[in-house]
Amino acid sequence: MSTTLQPGAASGEKERTPPAVPLPPLVELQGLSVRFGKREILRDLTASLRGRSIGLLGPNGAGKSTLINTLLGFYKSSSGSAKVFGYDIATEVRKIRGLVGYMPENDAFISKMSAVSFVRMMGELSGLPADMALERAHEALFYVGLAEARYRPLGTYSLGMKQLAKLAQAIVHGPKLLILDEPTNGLDPSARQRMIRMIREIRDGKEMRIVLCSHLLRDVEDTCDEVLILKQGRIAHYSNLDEERRANKRFLELETYGVNGANGDFTEAIEKLGCECAVTANRMKMILADGVETRDIFRLAAERQVRIRRMNFRRDSLEDIFLKAMEG
Amino acid sequence: MAIYRRNYKPYAGTLTQAWSRCFVLFRYSRRNLFRSKFLTGAFVVCFFYPLVCLLLIYLVHSATFLEQIGVRNQILAIDNEFFFHFMAVQGVLAFLLTAFVGPGLISPDLANGALPLYFCRPFSRAEYVLGKSSVLAILLSQITWIPGLILFGMQASLAGPAWTWSHLWIAGSLVLSSLIWIAILSLLAMALSAWVKWRIVAGALLLAVMFFGAGFAQAVNAVLQTESGHFFNVAYLMTTVWNALFRVDTVHPIPVVQAWIALLVYCAVCLGLLMRKVRAYEVVR
């Protein structure tokens, strides 16, 4: 039985300090497995996801959509359990569904209905009274940018507009959790930017928490603060991106040129501050010690007449994290 | 609240009762149905025969008028056979209406992948089927047992209490026979449309089940020298049950109990098919 994963644990990185005000767990997985016939799609998933915006990453067939569908009660787990907002998916799925807005990956609409009727009906099915559902359907369509087209039949919409209509129906009833399955699928770059901006706005509004499932690293990097990487139905990595980013800020790359021998003094001086250094010719890589800032590096360089040609923080991109997880 | 404000706000108002949400589907589906002028016309046509029956009942009780036109007032008896024929005609119309309406209820949702959007809400598959079938149930009720009861009421008011008490069972037969037929038609239409996901094909398939079913039944009977082929003929089974309910004397090769059981089996199979197909996502094993 695997242990509960905390951010960074799967990659074997050092434990990080928890955020100041930790959010209550959004999704808790306890040895969750899902099997379709003889195929095991999800295998013994154990994790506690707490982020405001959680990205589910993985190559095609890793089990991302299956995990979402299982959390929504569409698939039965073959063993283990899962909770969403503390509600068990096996016994309290109706309560979970009452708190969730779901934007599916594939086309999902009723072609002859106008967008406003469609979103209104979905609002009513979520429990909104008819008049309130109509008002909120208009608001949701305005919010996603379909105000002008809201009386048109959904069958006449472009792919990007259909994605926006799906988002509108997912938020019309004011859910506490928004599940987005490949929200930028098939969008052109500007439509993708609009979608990402909207997801960020929703995230920053702090009214909803988000689970975003995508195989596009950029989408997850742009919108999520935690990432769960799945590989062949298992958790390959789970980390807090904000913390990763903060941690990576301490890793500095320098390129210098100066008086012969000055670089040696410079390196020694930096090491005296408690930083770890690796030098190759005029290039230095260092991990800054706690309390050491970049201005200290500039000061030491000025004192030793070392000119800094280039300085940048090296940060692991999500791509690096993803590739490491895939290799592991 | 001004709708032009482009910001998101959560909903903090009251929610409707969970049991009432299947009527949302009923409302939207019914509204969509009556956008079709053809359907509206067909629906109106379904009331012609009840109107004729109403007129006949009135005329039978109008002795003066019958004398004026020189017709004996015993020419038409308003009895169980009269209501059986009423049900037979309205039953055929109900079938034709179902063939037009039924397949359009579920197949568009399946074809457009809309089911995950229904079921990701606090809304179950049973409620979905109930909501969709209520469209057919109410539509078909309006042309079968409701006008049937109106006719019965008219006859009862004109014939007096003695006739009413001695024929009260006809009212029960009208309701029961209609409900069975409505259940069979609704489930069959929805199961077929869920299976093929294509409205036109589902409509054709429903017609095929009825007409080819009858032909197949005859072929089985002729080839195997048996009467068991009638089990493939839903209309025949229904007529057998209706004959028993309206106490019409006819000889049937299939016992009424077996016809009842066969109809229930049809209903169960259709329900099973629906429950298998009406899912958010189909699992490929």
Task: Report a brief summary of the structure.
Chain A folds into 2 domains: 27-245, 3-Layer(aba) Sandwich (Rossmann fold); 250-318, Alpha-Beta Plaits (2-Layer Sandwich), CATH 3.30.70. Chain A is built from 11 helices and 14 strands.
Which properties best describe this structure?
heterodimer, A: 328 residues, alpha/beta, Rossmann fold, Alpha-Beta Plaits, 2 domains, six-stranded mixed beta sheet, four-stranded antiparallel beta sheet, 36% helix, elongated, disordered N terminus, B: 285 residues, mainly alpha, 14 helices, 72% helix, 0% strand
Spatial shape of chain A: elongated
Percent of residues in β-strands of chain B: under 5%
Which radius of gyration of chain B do the C-alpha atoms yield?
23 Å
Residue share in helix of chain B:
over 70%
Strand order of the largest sheet of chain A: 6-7-8-3-9-10
Low-confidence stretches of chain A: 1-17
The total beta strand count of chain B reads: 0
* Quaternary: heterodimer
Describe the secondary structure blueprint for this structure.
The complex is a heterodimer of chains A (328) and B (285).
Chain A (H helix, E strand, L loop, with lengths): L26 E10 L2 E11 L3 E5 L6 H8 L7 E6 L2 E2 L4 H7 E4 L11 H11 L4 H15 L14 H13 L5 E5 L7 H17 L3 E5 L3 H7 L2 E6 L2 E7 H8 L2 E8 L3 H11 L3 E5 L2 E5 L6 H10 L2 E8 L4 H10 L1
Parallel strand pairs in A: 3-8, 3-9, 6-7, 7-8
Antiparallel strand pairs in A: 1-2, 1-4, 4-5, 9-10, 11-13, 11-14, 12-13
Helix pairs in contact in A: 3-4, 3-5, 4-5
Chain B lengths: L21 H12 L3 H9 L2 H13 L2 H7 L10 H22 L1 H9 L3 H5 L5 H17 L3 H15 L1 H6 L1 H29 L2 H26 L9 H12 L10 H22 L8
